[in-house]
Every structure is written in C-alpha cells, then in structure tokens.
Amino acid sequence: MPHAVTIATPGLQALILCGPGSSFPTFTANPDENPKALLPIANRPMVWYPLDFCYRAGITNITLICPPSAAEAITTALNTNPFLTSLPYPKADLLSPKGLDQNTGTAQILRLPEVQALVTSDFLVLPCDLVCELGADKLLQAWMVKSASLADLLSHSESPRAQPSGGLGVWYQTKTATPVKGEETDFTAVVPLPPSSILAPRGSLFPNISKLVYSMPTDSRKDLVEEQSGLPTRTSLLESHPRIRLLTTHRDAHLYIFPRWVMEFVRENEALETIGEDVVGWWAKAEWQKGLTTKLGLDEILGYEQKDDGKEDDKTGTGGLPSPGKSVTGNNQTLSVTVKDKAEQARKSESTLAGPSSGSLVPPMLAYIHPSQPTSTATAPTINPAPAPTIIRRVDTSQLLLQVSLQLAKLPSIEEAGPEAASPFAHVRKVAYPEGVKPRTTITKADSLVAENVTVQEKSSVKECVVGANCQINEGARLIQCLLMDGVVVGKNCKLTKCILGKRSEIGEGCVLTDCEVQENMLVERKTEAKDEKFMSSSGLEATDQDLEGYSDDAGDDDAGLL
Amino acid sequence: MATEGTSAPAVALTAQADGQAVVAHANAPAPAPADTPQLTPAQLKAKAKAEKAARRAKVKEDKEVVAAAAQSQAADAKSGKGKGRDGAQTSGPQGPGKVGLTHRPSMSGRRPSILIVEKDIRSSIPECFSHLPMAKRIPLSQVHKDVHPAVLSIGQQMSTFAIKDSISRLEATLKAFRKVIESYETPKGNSLSRHFVPHALNPQIEYLTECRPMCFSMGNAIRLLKAKVNSFDIDTPEDEAKEGLLEMIELFINERITLAEFVIARNAAKQIQDGDLVLTYGSHRLVEKTFLRARGDGRSFSVSIIDDPYDRGGQVMATTLRKAGIRVFYSPNLGGLKTHVERATNVILGAEAIFANGSLHAAAGTADIAVAATAASKKVIALCETINFDRERVSVDALTYNEIDPEQNSAESFRLLYDTTRDHYITGVITEFETGSGNSPAQAILALLRKQEDPALN
C-alpha cells in the first residue's frame, strides 16, 4: 500500500524536468509515445529515481514538467506502472506548459508563465535521468547550513530584506573504474569556502563543499579554446581568487537547490537558455566579475541599494521602519512602538559602526563535489561502514543506461542484505519470479536482476544482465551484460553480449549480437551476426515529398527518378 | 465475589457462603470440580493470570514459528539456482506479509524510519558523566513530520554549530516560532490555547532539543511563551491570540536582545579608556560590539585576544576588529597567559549565562582567564544580557551543568564546551539594566530581576 511520507518536510518544492532524450536515438525515436523519462533503469522507469530522491528528503510538493505531447504517456505510466504507483503519498503533479516543446532550453522552461506561477518557495531542479543514491537529507542539510541565509529563511513580512540565500549544485566524477566513452563532462573551477573554526560533523558533506567560480560544459570550452586559441581568463577572477581548483573530468549532475529569487533572475534575463550552462555559469561569474551584477539585474532582484560613497546616512536603510499601522491590542501599543523605534535605531547605528560591508554582495553558488572514492568514515564502529561509493550518475546515453543498470543490478537485494543495510535502490529479490526459471539454467544472482514473469528456458545462461518484466528467454540462449526491457523474446541459442534490447523486440534464433541496440518492437532475423549495430525501424525516416523534390532538383537533368 | 465480573447477577444473589464455590465453578471450567472449592479468590485471580500468560506465550511462539518458517523460505529462495520450486505453494499458509510481498514488485525502497538507538553515540562516555548532555544531531531523515521547515533549518544550523552562542540560538528560535505561529491554524472544534502547545509547539521543541541541548535562555523564553498561551481564555478568537503571541515575541526580541545588546555595548564601551590594552577570550557577540562601539566613540585602544585552541572563533573577531582599525594581538591558546594578563590593563569577558549564585557560565577557558586576571589584580568585567540570568540553578564547579563536544569524545577523554567562574573572580557585570559592581555584583542584579518579575515582593 502506498503510504504517506512520514518525515518532516523541508519547505522546498521540487521540479523534475522530463525532456526528450536527444542522446538516445535508438530508444526515443518517438519521444511522445516513449518518452525518455519512462525508459527502464534496472527495471524501474527512469523517472522513479528522482521521485524517490525527493520523497526520501521529505519533499512532498513535486511537479514533473514535460511537453504536452508526452503528457499522456507519462500520466498513464504514473497511474499504472507498479513502481510509480507504490511511491508514497502525496503524488507528484504533472505540468505540461503550453509553450514547451521538445527543443526548449531548460532555463526557458523556468521562464514559462505556468512554471513561474508554480514556484512559490526555494526549489530543487532535477533532471528525469538522474540516479542519485546519496541521501537527499545530507544535501539539504548542507544547503541549509552553508548556503541558505538564516535571515532569509526566518524573514518576517515586515522586517527589512535580509541577506538572500545562495544555491547548491552537485558535481560527480566521471572517470570512475569503468568509464563510459563519450560521456559529457563539465569544465568547472571551484575555490574552497572560507575556513570555519568549527569541525564539520561526522558524516556530513561539508568537507566536500566548495564555492563555484566558473562552470562551462567541456564542449563549449573546446569551442572557445578553438576560437580564441587558448582559454581566456579574466584578471578579476584571479584577483579575487588566487587559488582555484580546476576540474575537467567532473560532470554536473544538474541537481540544483535554488533560492526563490532565481526565478526572477531567469525571468529578467531572456538571454539565459539553459540552467546548467547559463544560469549557473553567469551566477558564478557575477560573484567576482565587477559590473556583472548590474548587467544581470541582480541588484534589484536581491534588494541591494547602490552603494554611493558618502550617501549612506541619507538612506533610510533597507526596508526602513515598519509601518506603524499595525493594529496592536491592549495598552502595550505605545510601549511596543517606542521599543521598536529604539531597536531600529540601535540596528542602524550598529550597521554604520561596523563599517562598510564586504565586497561581494552576491550570495554564493556552492558546489558539492561528490568523491568517487568513499571517504573513510573510520569512527564509530556501530554505524555500518559504506563499502561501495554512492552512485550519482546522469543517464542520458544508451551506454550509460547499460552501465548504470548493470551497476544497480550488483546491489544486494533487500532480502539478502536486510532492510536496514540495503541501499535505497535495492529490489526485494534479485529474481522476482523464480518459478519461471527452469532447471539447468545459470543466472548469476550476484550481478543480475530478473523482473516479474520472466521465463527462462533450459540450458540458457544469464550472466550480469538486467532482464525486464514478461521476457522470454528460450533454450540455449547466452546473455552476457545485456539489458532487456519489457516483453523481449530471445530466440533459441542466441548469443548476446553487451546488448540493449528495447520493449517487445524479438531476436530470432541463433543470432550472435555484440554491442548492439535493438529498438522497440523490432524483429531481428534469425542467424543475424552483428557487432556494434543499431537496429532501428525505418518508419519516420522515409523521405518526405519535399526531400524528394530537393533531390531531383539537385540531380539536375539526370533522370534519377523517384526512389 | 462479583469482583471476578464474569457471572450473571444470579450468582451474586446466591448466599454468601455458597458464593465462593459457585463463582469458582464458573471461572474454572477446565480443572476437575473437585479442585475448585479449595481455591480462594486471590488464588483464582493468580490462576487466571497464569492462564493468560500461558496463552500469550503460546501466541508468541506461534508467531516465532511463522517468522522462522518465513525466514527459511527466504533462505530457500536465496539458495539454489533456477530450480523450479514449490516456493509459491508453501508461502500460502505462512505469514500473510510474505505472501503480499511475493506478488508485488520491488518496493520503492521506503522502509519505516529506523530510530537509531539513542545512547549509541554516548556509549563510550563513562556512566558517572551521564548527566552531561551532548548534541544528538539527528539527521533530516529521522525528523518527526510535524516539524516546521523553518525550525528544521535552524535545528540543522544549531546541530552543526553554525550558530553557537545562546543569544543567536535564542533569536533564531524565536523567529522560527514566529513563523510557526503565523502558519498555524487551529483545527475545528479546538481552541488555540489548548491545542497549540501540545500539537504545534512541542514537536518543534523536541526536535530542537534533539539537535542540540537547549540553552538556559531558550528554556526561559519558551516558558514565557507557554505561560502567555495559557493565559488566553479558551474562547479567545484565534487571530487575537496569534497576534498577542506575535507581539510578545516581537517585543521580546526587540527589548531583551537587540536593545539589550545596544545598551550593554554602550555601557561597556565607557569602561574602555584611551591607551588601554583590553584582554578577551575567544569571540563573543557582545564583546565585539563593545569594541566596535568604543572605536566608534573615538577611543584609541588595543585588544589582546586569547583564543580557544579547539574552536578558533577569535580569528574571525580579530579580522573584524582589524578592519575597524583596532590594533589586535592574537594568541592561539592559553600558553603564556600570565604574561598576557600582566600586560593588559583590563579584561572583558562574554558569558553564556549567570547562575543564581553569581557564577559565570561561559566558554571553556574563561575561568582560567578570570583567575589569572584576579591574581594579577586586573579588573574583570563580564557582559551578559538579563535574559541569560538563570535564577533557579546554582553552580560552583564546571561539572554540574555542561555539555560534551560531540566531535571530541571517546572512552578515554572528552572535551567540555563550557566552564564556571566563581563570582569572586569577577569584578563587575554589565547588563542592560545597570552596571553592578562592588561585592557580589551579580547578586545585585539578581535582586533587581527578582523585584522586576514579582513587583509585590519588596
């Protein structure tokens, strides 16, 4: 039975952006019927992972944002998929803004009026393809303590505008033990936070939090370097931060905790197209680049007055005195107003005494750099040591899909590890339907995952695979490191290595496929031998009349004829 | 005999002499009738109890058998590869929970929040120090769902020691409670004065206490708040009650925190003369404000900061003072204290609280400074707001009321966060009321506070 979330809500809301899978050509050729958000990772639809992440943090106000064309498929899945329906209450909402299509940039999504109206508090932005095993509560704690400004969180409607909160982003290392070729990375520069005299509590993320000063996807950086034959660096960056740490193999997990004013920031600046590159990049730069705050309109958004020399006394201070029109009961009225006045005077005189405030007015964008090796928690022996590093990956290519699914398949199931020690991504059992597995078959349980209703015939072997629900694996088939989605039929005596088979595809008898991808509903002929091929249907790729005309024109007088 | 409560009124009407036997018969049908006349009511009661216990034990045994069988089924499911099994058939008669699980797909990874055993982090601390609290720092995933988001944030800040001193914590707590009151809605049929404290306020207080043990001023403020809530009539309209509470909090913050700080800084700044070398320990809000105020008044003096080696807060204060143009001497620990004290002209210390006997409760290390200063005949001035005066507790040593550092504790040693300075080492206490100096300065102020809160007392 789905249950309600029983931990405290942190007062943030979450937006999960379900975009088209432009890097998944095989499987999202039809993004409206098979949106990327529903592709299975370790037998759970992809969008389950960010949803689960939010629920584990106690966030209950979750909205999925998808283009209207894909809304139907996602709604159906939310209502019928067994994993999605077993998520706790309250259920996530689905928003399909009118202006959103498959090519809208992520920052443009935040600019849409429906989304602007939706966001009323500090918020999280998640991509639908994020697999994050790290506890969201730790990230939230890090944001609450390091980034969020207490004065802002506790601000009263009448009190002056307080120091605004900052943001937090997550970066992870892509160069792990098993790197995936062609994975996107980001070029990031961070500086450490000002040293604090207080020891960070054990198990918190504070030692890995730094301040972001520069962020750019590696592709953009390569273009820039090519254009300018070198990486142009501003001197103001080096002046403000003489010691910078440059990261080239990390990747932005696109998991951001943003304060509310970012919505206004995005709305005011039409030039921002994507969150990862533009919003975060420009925000990081605004901290050290002089004049950028005015150009981006941050001064008004953050409520800072212009600091003119010698005019401080004339200013009434941020916010001024609270309006005396508040109806106060009893005879404390005069007393409270007097005390209030005096307190205001006290605050003002203190601010002049303290001298000019520090230079950087922009609240920092912090970066949590996820370590690829587990940090030694060599303290209390009562706490279970975490042997494997926690997984944070974005799954946006098919190779990553395969690798992450296989990685998750290696997690011990709840049954084996016990409910407390099991990872939040563990399944109840490795082989969900053991009766379907006939004798004399080999399934390596330690690193495979077999879903419901799968029949595995005799003499077949399934090693290190993830098999989706309702599949049929016939006699003699050998599967090594494969990913099978729902309803796949694998013919007799096939040999498949490192393949990804889409929904309801069928592999004929005797095929030998290595490194192949098969689109959904495809039939692979018997006895096909292929390596590194993508079996896609040619529907949708037929030449339109316009293309044909263009072709015959180009051909000139040649009697090319119609194909 | 009707105490057994089983029989119909007919039994009660029977003659007293027979009563025993009849009731006994009704109660114990199983044993042979020959036994029954001998048993007294007390014995009967004991017998019924024993039977009940036996029944309970049996039920428990059955449950264990079921659990064991389920375990063995799970073990079966683990072992064996791909062998067709009649696991499905055996799962039928056994525990219903298991049956439900086999047919449902993998659970979404949510399991009931596990309460980590409370004394886990304290397991290494010897029993004799069990009265000293330590910050438990529960993670966000184990917080009760009634906790308000604002309180959640400040709890996290407190547990990670981002806000440490009592006044900052008090201010944050009050502002967070302001948000709780604003967002509170009395459910239908209840009144705020009866419903608010147990259902809205207490979960927040419990959570804050679990993040870090409460300081005295927080306890005082909460007591005042609860008293105010109770003072409302049961049929006071909600808006009126809420406004009253908000107003009280507003007044409290303005009067006893903001204004108090301002007045204390002004009064203490008068004690600093030109050319002074003022010694202080660690970093304290009031002390910093005093120095800045004195600087603003145009005095030229220098400051010598002795820092706590485990918590280098003095460095931040040193930077601030330097920016304001004050000359700062910094010492990273208590080494060479005698020399530093002899060079200084007076000593200003910040306090966390003042007990009823005038002792100062301050950051660990303050007592050393005070003792050394008194030995060198220097004036020792303590700065403390009246909200931090605790009129109920008395302390003569540092082990009665203290807190253990959650980062530095083990079976061999632990670090305490505070210590106690006896009142004869303090020359004067500056609060927002007036400067108490002379003998037992704190006592004078305590008397004043007593008079303030109980005007009838004279």
Automatic annotation (TrEMBL), chain A:
Residues 307-316, 339-350 have a biased composition (Basic and acidic residues). It is found in: Cytoplasm, Cytosol. Residues 326-337, 351-360 have a biased composition (Polar residues). Residues 34-148 form the Nucleotidyl transferase domain. GO terms for biological process: cytoplasmic translational initiation. Its main location: cytoplasm. Component of the translation initiation factor 2B (eIF2B) complex which is a heterodecamer of two sets of five different subunits: alpha, beta, gamma, delta and epsilon. Subunits alpha, beta and delta comprise a regulatory subcomplex and subunits epsilon and gamma comprise a catalytic subcomplex. Within the complex, the hexameric regulatory complex resides at the center, with the two heterodimeric catalytic subcomplexes bound on opposite sides. Belongs to the eIF-2B gamma/epsilon subunits family. This is Mannose-1-phosphate guanyltransferase.
TrEMBL record, chain B:
Residues 48-65 have a biased composition (Basic and acidic residues). This is Translation initiation factor eIF2B subunit delta. Pfam families: IF-2B (PF01008). Residues 24-111 are annotated as: Disordered. Component of the translation initiation factor 2B (eIF2B) complex which is a heterodecamer of two sets of five different subunits: alpha, beta, gamma, delta and epsilon. Subunits alpha, beta and delta comprise a regulatory subcomplex and subunits epsilon and gamma comprise a catalytic subcomplex. Within the complex, the hexameric regulatory complex resides at the center, with the two heterodimeric catalytic subcomplexes bound on opposite sides. It comes from Immersiella caudata. One of its GO terms (cellular component) is cytosol. It is found in: Cytoplasm, Cytosol. Residues 24-42, 66-77 have a biased composition (Low complexity). The keyword Magnesium does not apply. Belongs to the eIF-2B alpha/beta/delta subunits family.
